[in-house]
């Protein structure tokens, strides 16, 4: 979320101090534009942006069993990157991401 928003995790000046709560409140209002890092100035694929924000929100779920495993996260981030690359006209990205990743963990909090 920090990368998407360019916001601190904890910011006492926001109404919602924690970044996850702040993003959630913005999503409830449908305000995706103000979630994004203003330096991007709209230079991003909206589908990719939504996908990345949804993924980030799932990853901060307080219940570990409801969070995705790392292989799912990697897969979703690859899809975000492909959408963004298509936006800028770089189709070579689909060929360069054919690597398979397998992450698993038996550790649960």
What does this structure look like?
This is LRR receptor-like serine/threonine-protein kinase. It comes from Cardamine amara subsp. amara. The chain is mainly α and 109 residues long. The chain has one domain (2-96). It contains 5 helices and no strands. The longest helix has 19 residues, at 70-88. It starts with a helix and ends in a 13-residue tail after the last helix. The relative contact order is 0.12.
How is this fold's topology laid out?
Blueprint: H1 2-5, H2 19-28, H3 46-59, H4 70-88, H5 93-96
Helix pairs in contact: 3-4
Brief write-up:
By secondary structure, this protein is an all-alpha fold. It has one domain. The protein has 5 helices and no strands.
Main sheet summary: none
Distance between the termini: 22 Å
In quaternary terms, these chains amount to single chain
* Weakly predicted, low-confidence segments: none
Mean pLDDT: 84
Shape: globular
Helix content: 40-55%
Total strand segments: 0
Helix vs. strand class: mainly alpha
Number of domains: 1
**H-E order:** HHHHH
- The proportion of residues in beta strands is under 5%
Rg from alpha-carbon coordinates: 15 Å
**Count of alpha/pi helices:** 5
Protein name: LRR receptor-like serine/threonine-protein kinase
């Amino acid at each position: 979320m920090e990368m998407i928003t360019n916001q601190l995790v904890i910011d006492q000046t926001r109404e919602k101090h924690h970044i996850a709560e702040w993003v959630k409140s913005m999503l409830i209002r449908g305000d995706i534009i103000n979630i994004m890092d203003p330096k991007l100035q709209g230079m991003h694929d909206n589908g990719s942006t939504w996908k990345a924000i949804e993924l980030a929100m799932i990853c901060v779920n307080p219940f570990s069993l409801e969070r995705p495993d790392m292989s799912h996260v990697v897969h979703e981030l690859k899809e975000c990157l492909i959408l963004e690359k298509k936006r800028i006209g770089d189709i070579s990205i689909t060929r360069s991401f054919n690597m398979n990743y397998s992450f698993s963990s038996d550790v649960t909090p």
